[in-house]
Amino acid sequence: MERVINRNARDEVYNISYEKEAAQALVADLYYPGCLSLGRKQVKADRVASWARPVDMRIVHSRRNWTAQEDLMLRQSDDIMTIAKEIGRTERACRLRLWRLRNSRVLTPTDQ
User: How far apart are alpha carbons 110 and 81 in whole angstroms?
Assistant: First the structure.
């Protein structure tokens, strides 16, 4: 499923989430040594800063949204391997996207 971004119900604001190394970088900027902070916030910041990626956890690079043109190319072609190389995606990603498109598991630009 594609991620949907909505405002929260209580405050009508967007909640921004940082995870893993991105969270550590943010915490390092906000909670530098000797900074003035609330104790409970500093405890959480220390916990984030001490997090270590497990050896078996792979790093997922930034995601690239599918375009309407890529979706169209996938639907019209019988050769997924060629299309995958052409659009710079893995064969597995293309097969999964095509399955999602065929089974109405993802919103296409015309559905939004």
Answer: 26
